[in-house]
Amino acid sequence: MSFKRIGFVDYHLDNFHTRVYLDALRGTLADRGFRVTGATAVLAEPSETWASAHDLRYYDSIEELADVVDYFAILAPSNPEQHFHLCQGVFPHKKPTFVDKTFAPDYETAENIFRLADEHGVAVQTTSALRNTNIQQRVRELVSPLRSMFITAGGSSFPEYGIHPMELAVSCLGANVISLMRIGSPENPQFILQFSDNRTAIIDFNEKADVPFSAILSSREGIKYEVVDTATLFVDAAAAILDFFTAESAQVDRKETLMIRRILDVAMTDEAASRFVSLVDDPDGGQIVPAPHWKLSKTHKAEKR
């Protein structure tokens, strides 16, 4: 039986996303006709050791890997600052490419990645794992339009895990976010997103507690409460990646990807503290530096030393 070949490109292969996606593709999704046939990474020595332990062939470079794959998956989920550099190595090979969360460290870099993909004629897609959950399925089943969401979310830091609730909100309510405000403490902030047509999303993010991802959905039908089914979360996410590879064209609107990145940029600033900041006044985006009281990832801290 012939199969389509996927190559993993990473910063360090030993991470949670590499493990769960590899397990899903070798297990539940094996009958989709895709195989992970090789991998490469920036941190070569520990990544080669990990690959060997997981029966995955390791290649010394993207160029070598490109010769034996049909599609690329750029992972590095904790290192978005690596994504543009990795895309620079991958896109010239003109193979459909999935880029894991968080797509880029800022809005400007996100635009640059899309621009680079267009220059090479490459189909590219990015999502968080919370793009394809039972919550989105419940929204699709609503008879009347979704009017508001109250989302609970958690994670060890907002810079790394804040994308998940924002992906939920934008995937359900669309890219037309008008403004954003943050209230609460740095460890337990709440974000209020105002969408077009007087729609809203409120996100409660907690760094200290093990909070499930969930949403209260409000429409003319009434109120529905849904908790993300974590048992199938990464299988569903991997299946969506395969849908993209099969179509060889993005299944997610770039406007949504760019709006999520803009939300994340603004959410981290002191400007958004206790007052609404417009997300539409500056159509060209721009680089917004995170406020100093927000914790940065270990990688960002290392870069600043």
TrEMBL record:
The UniProt record lists the keyword Lipoprotein: no
Boundaries of every Gfo/Idh/MocA-like oxidoreductase N-terminal domain copy: 31-126
Alphabetic keyword roster: Oxidoreductase
Domain of life: Bacteria
Keyword Signal: no
Single GO MF descriptor: nucleotide binding
Annotated family: Belongs to the Gfo/Idh/MocA family.
Protein name: Oxidoreductase family, NAD-binding Rossmann fold
